[in-house]
Amino acid sequence: DAGKSGYDHYMLKEIHEQPTAIRQCLHERVVELEREIAVDSVASLSVPDRVQLVACGTSYHAALYGTRLLRERGVPATAFLASEYDVDAVPVDRETLVIGVTQSGETADTMTALREANSVGATTLAVTNVVGSSAARECDRAMYVRAGPEIGVAATKTFVSQQIALVVLASELTGEYDVDLVGALRDLPGQLQSVLDDSRARTVAEEYLDADAYFFIGRSYNAPVALEGALKMKEITYKHAEGFAAGELKHGPLALVTDRTPVFALVTEGANPTKTIGNVKEVETRGAPVVAVTDGCSDVERYADFVLEVPETHPALAPVLANVQLQLVSYWVANDLGRSIDKPRNLAKSVTVE
Ligand code: G6P
Predict the structure, then answer these.
(1) 32 φ, ψ to 5°?
(2) Where is the catalytic site (predicted)?
(3) How would you list the strands of the sheet with 290-294, edge to edge?
C-alpha cells in the first residue's frame, strides 16, 4: 500500500499522476517543437510514403488518435489491431513506416506485427513506456513516452503519454509545427490538474450506478476517446459499455438505447460538435440520460442531464482532457461497486501470448 501514496488504488494514483506524465513526456521535446527541429527518435527519418500504426487495447485507441494527427498533416496513416495485421493482407514495404504503440513493449500480437514489418524491410518505430523492452530493442527506432511505471492493469497515464508522444511525433515527422498547438501543450498539465481538482465525475458515477449499460459517442479526434471510455468502463466495472463514432449510432446501437443507458457525449471544439449534438438529441428523444463532456464550444448543456467540463485548449488536445473525465467516471463506478480495480478479473497488464 505504501506505493499508493495515500490513494485507495494505484489506478486513482496514476490518474492523478497524469499532469506529471505529460510534463515528463514533453521534457525537452517541447523546446524541440518550438525550435521546429526534429531531434527526437524521428530525427533523420524522411516523411514516409505511408504510416501504419499497430497496437492492442488502449494503445490501439492512442494509435487511432495518432492516425488522425498524421492525416491532418497530409500523411496517409492507418491504425491496425495488431492481432489482425498479419492475417489481413496489409500491404507493407520498404517505404512504409510501421509504428508499434505499446505501453509494455512486450504484447505478443504487437511484436508479431512489428516482426512482420521488419521482415519486409519496413522502417519500424516503437512508441513505448518501457526502456529496453522487446519492441524498443527490435524496432529500428524507439520513442519513449516516459509515463513512469504503471501498476494498475487498466492503462491510464500511459494512454495520455502515448497521445502526447504521438502529437510530438506527428509534428516532428512531418515538419509541420503549429505554434498554437505547442503553446497549448505547455498549458496542458495545468489544465489536466484543474479537471482532476474540479471533476463532477463521482456524482455522475453515483447517479448512474445501476445503469444497464453505458454508451460513449464522439467524432473525429473524440471517436478514439469514446472507444477508450467504454473499454475503461468494461475493464474495471464489469458492466456493459460500448463506444461508437457518433455517426454510427443510428446504424444499430440506437436500438440499445433506453432510459437505463446513459450516453456520454464528447462535444469539443473542432470535433464536429453540431453533428454530435444531433446524435445527443436522438438519444434524448429515446429517454436516455445524457452526460456531455465538453469545453463549452456549443449549447450541448441544454440537452444534457450532467455536464463534465474540460478547459478550452487546442482542438487536437481536447480529447486528452475529455478522456480524464471518463477515466474518473469509470473509476468511481467501479469503486462504488466494490470491484477489484487494480487487478480486474481475467485481465493481465501485459499479454504475452497471441
Ligand atoms: C493488456 C492490458 C491493456 C493494454 C493492452 C496492450 O490487455 O490490460 O491495458 O492496453 O494489453 O498493452 P500494451 O503494453 O501493448 O500497450
Answers:
(1) -60, -45
(2) 349 (for fru-6p isomerization activity)
(3) 240-245, 213-218, 263-267, 290-294, 306-309
Residues at CB less than 6 angstroms from ligand 1: 56-59, 102-104, 107, 110, 153-155, 347-351
pLDDT one-digit tens code per residue, 5-53? 999 999 999 999 999 999 999 998 998 888 888 777 787 788 888 999 9
3-class DSSP assignment, residue 142 = strand
Please enumerate in sequence order all residues whose Cβ is within 8 A of that of 65, keeping only pairs 6 or more positions apart, or say none.
163, 166, 221, 224, 225, 319
349 is catalytic: yes
Q: Is residue 268 a contact partner of residue 318, using CB atoms and an 8 Å limit? A: yes
Cα angle value 349/352/354 (rounded, 5°):
120
- Which member of 4, 275, 343, 349 is catalytic? 349
Matching residue, cell 469514446? 226
**DSSP state, residue 301:** G
The answer to whether residues 183 and 13 touch, using CB atoms and an 8 Å cutoff, is no
| Predicted TM-score (pTM) of this structure | 0.97
CA of 58 to the centre of ligand 1 (A): 6
- Displacement of CA 151 from its chain's centroid (Å): 18
Which runs of E-coded beta strand occur in 193-321?
213-218, 240-245, 263-267, 290-294, 306-309
Q: Tell me the pLDDT tens digit for each residue of 263-295.
A: 999 999 999 999 999 999 999 999 999 999 999
